[in-house]
Specification:
Layout lengths: L2 E2 L1 H9 L3 H6 L14 E5 L2 E5 L4 E12 L2 E12 L22 E13 L4 E11 L4 E5 L3 E5 L2 E5 L2 E5 L4 E12 L2 E14 L5 E15 L3 E11 L4 E12 L4 E10 L4 E5 L7 E3 L21
């Protein structure tokens, strides 16, 4: 049997303590905009620490806020202190928080964050800033999945709901089908589609960047992947290693995932350079010259 914190969740949304609620008359709900809630359920216990303004849910705990669901071994919800009679606190954008007077939620242990648009985030610890609509996940085996895109990271994963951004920090790796991009920091930008799904349209990689196609491995300092064109532009100390061992260096490289080919481009600051492996045989278009009889 699961315990439900729905009655407390209603208290969260209006941000009123028990004493204040007894004195204030509840405002009628608008039929167009019903009051939003954070519904919390758990298997083990539901606790309220009034001196800390903290709600705690233990044992397979689940919190539902809007279309975002967070499950974990332990969930906490912190209620900001609002002086009696003061209006609900607004966010940095000047809008009312959709979580009422809850300013921060945390999750610990087997954290899973899901949204109906296909987003799944996995980690050990999560902090949900309900005002800014930003979730930061840390721990081991971090992963972010949205449709065919899967991103992993060592240090943290961030999801910026209003900005449609996902940021992976520390040895970040993004894989989408046979497309592979690595970097110290990866930033994925999404656009909402008519079907309600978020579709990747741009990804930026910074620091120790690696872009892998079927035929080439391209390394550099920075890369920008254009999802519509299916092309990544790599810049800064670019090095391309091809399957046959050929190495190319230059200023800018273009990796085309459709053709699985990469090419160097010169931005005017230096020369393009190729290092050919010694074992490479003659080109098929250039037949091998015949030795003259008696020649050494």
């Amino acid at each position: 049997m699961r315990l439900s914190l729905l009655t407390l969740a209603i208290g969260l949304t209006i941000g009123a303590a028990t004493a204040a609620a007894a004195e204030a008359k509840p405002a009628p709900a608008s039929p167009q905009q019903p009051p939003r809630q954070i519904e919390v359920t758990a298997d083990q216990s539901l606790e309220w620490y009034q001196d800390k303004n903290l709600y705690v849910a233990r044992g397979n705990a689940k919190a539902v806020r809007g279309d975002t669901t967070i499950t974990a071994d332990l969930l906490t919800a912190h209620q900001r202190e609002t002086p009696k009679g003061e209006k609900p606190v607004k966010t940095a954008n000047g809008q009312k928080s959709d979580a009422g007077n809850i300013d921060l939620m945390t999750a610990d242990g087997h954290v899973l964050i899901t949204r109906p648009n296909g987003t799944h985030i996995i980690g050990d610890h999560a902090e949900d800033d309900t005002d800014q609509h930003v979730i930061v996940v840390t721990g081991h085996d971090l992963s972010y999945t949205s449709g065919q895109l899967r991103v992993t990271a060592r240090d943290s994963l961030e999801y910026w709901d209003l900005k449609k951004l996902a940021i992976a920090r520390g040895n970040a790796v993004a894989v989408k089908g046979d497309r592979h991009v690595e970097g110290d920091v990866l930033t994925a930008e999404f656009r909402a589609q008519p079907n309600g799904q978020d579709q990747l349209y741009k990804m930026t990689a910074q620091g120790h960047v690696t872009v892998i196609t079927k035929n080439d491995v391209t390394r550099g300092d920075r890369a920008v992947y254009d999802a519509a064109r299916d092309i990544a532009i790599v810049s800064g100390h670019v090095r391309i290693t091809r399957a046959n061992g050929m190495q190319l260096t230059g200023d800018v490289a273009e990796s085309d995932f459709k053709t699985n080919q990469s090419r160097l481009m010169n931005d005017g600051s230096g020369r393009v350079r190729a290092l050919l492996p010694a074992h490479m045989g003659p080109s098929k278009s250039a037949p091998q010259s015949k030795k003259t009889e008696g020649a050494p």
